[in-house]
Design a protein that fits this description.
428 residues; alpha/beta; four-stranded antiparallel beta sheet; 39% helix
């Protein structure tokens, strides 16, 4: 992420949190009563709020309502995983309590819910804030309070390049890494591609598009048209019509689910324009494609890093079997084939690994554990994809594999692309 874009994120976050910081000034002045409990022994002085010998209390903030509500079901996959683990004895003997709050994909509401989780619920960590705007709105507060914010549900590269928020870290491949995978694919298969890009006009959309433009710079691939939309827009039909006039042979669809469906539908409807359609991972769920009609999205390309529960190649996979059984038991109204549910399971199991690796059962222990992952495997991740972080690398996952939609499901193709090795580190 370039410095200008990083400053934009921080300015937006500062504007959103200004009222919060004023409101919490009095609470901060109260001093000791808000500091929670601390550990003794070798972990002396470290925070133990939200964790005991028998329990861990976690909070999550999701858009259960609003324009990005399709993501809300991620929380069901997370909850199913924790209930499954609790029935097996918990994490190192500790049962997990997961408190879910709804921010409607609105940053000011995310701030309100973060305060509720920290100050009222007294959670150990705010695990999963969803969306770049919401996460940017709350990370100043959580870092000031020294509350871990692990594995945020957004791929903005700033979560791994910023060095002033040690309590916050991403999980999924960042948008720049994802963009690099698409750029490599086009360089290998369509080296003279003319690309039209539809993108969400926020740091999510700009991050992925900027990463793509940087990755194709100097090649024969050109971005010939760009159209943005706001999350408050009713549709993207006008933008899609404008992009079609470019006669580009590739459409790069950088959207959240609601608008992803609209863009896919608009592309299918326009029989005079037939570009290779690349849809970003966050809108690749079958739940996004199904309303368009599977027959209308054949050949669409995306990238992933975890197993698709609808893919028959994983039918006998032990993790998929455990996932399906747990979803039926703990979330009977949720669709196990929905990739967002599988995402929730995958990220929860990744947090399990980090919690189990803590040297101290404290907030500081979790903060350090998520930044010291050594090729950690999680059952829902694709073969070849591991969690790895260190002093100079705050991006847990940077490997993805391409997939193409065939019939009624995604089909993996090619080999996993380790963007660390392929393109080098992502810098500020």
């Amino acid at each position: 992420m370039n410095r200008m874009r990083k400053k934009t994120v921080l300015r937006a976050a500062a504007a959103t949190t200004a009222a919060l910081l004023t409101a919490t000034a009095c609470a901060t002045q109260r001093g000791q009563e808000d500091k929670g409990t601390t550990a003794g022994g070798a972990c002396k002085g470290q925070q133990t709020t939200g964790i005991t010998d028998k329990t861990i209390k976690l909070g999550g903030i999701y858009p259960l309502s609003g324009p990005a509500s399709a993501y809300g079901t991620i929380s069901e996959g997370v909850e199913a995983y924790f209930k499954y683990v609790n029935d097996k004895g918990g994490i190192d003997g500790r049962k997990v309590e997961f408190v879910v709050r709804d921010d409607g994909y609105q940053p000011p509401k995310a701030v309100e819910e973060a305060r509720r989780l920290v100050e009222r619920e007294k959670v150990f960590a705010v695990f999963q804030t969803l969306g770049t705007p919401s996460t940017a709105a709350v990370w100043d507060y959580l870092n000031q309070q020294k509350v871990p914010q692990p594995f945020v549900a957004t791929g903005a590269s700033i979560w791994g390049t910023d060095d002033k928020h040690p309590w916050t870290i991403g999980w999924q491949p960042n948008y720049v890494a994802e963009a690099r995978v698409y750029a490599k694919y086009l360089k290998d298969t369509k080296p003279k591609a003319k690309v039209a890009a539809l993108y969400q006009n926020d740091d999510f959309g700009k991050d992925l598009l900027g990463g793509f433009e940087k990755a194709v710079a100097g090649s024969g691939i050109k971005v010939v048209a760009k159209e943005s939309y706001e999350v408050t827009d009713p549709s993207v039909s006008a933008q899609m019509a404008n992009l079609a006039r470019s006669k580009a042979d590739v459409l790069l669809n950088i959207t959240t689910p609601k608008f992803g469906s609209q863009a896919l539908a608009a592309d299918a409807k326009n029989t005079k324009w037939d570009p290779l359609h690349i849809v970003n991972n966050v809108s690749s769920s079958a739940a996004v494609l199904k309303p368009v009609g599977f027959k209308n999205v054949q050949g669409v390309v995306s990238a992933t890093y975890f197993k698709d529960p609808a893919d028959p190649q994983w039918a006998d996979d032990p993790e998929i079997k455990a996932y399906r059984k747990a979803m039926r038991k703990y979330a009977p109204d949720a669709d196990p084939a929905n990739q967002f549910n599988a995402y929730g399971w995958a990220v929860a199991s990744s947090l399990h690994q980090a919690l189990a690796a803590m040297k101290c059962p404290t907030r500081e222990g979790l903060r350090d554990a998520v930044r010291n992952l050594k090729e950690v495997k999680a059952g829902m991740l694709l073969p070849g994809v591991t969690l790895a972080t260190g002093p100079d690398d705050a991006f847990p996952i940077e490997t993805m594999q391409l997939m193409r939609f065939k019939g009624e499901r995604w089909s993996l193709f090619g080999q996993p692309v380790d963007t660390r090795k392929e393109f080098g580190p992502i810098t500020h």
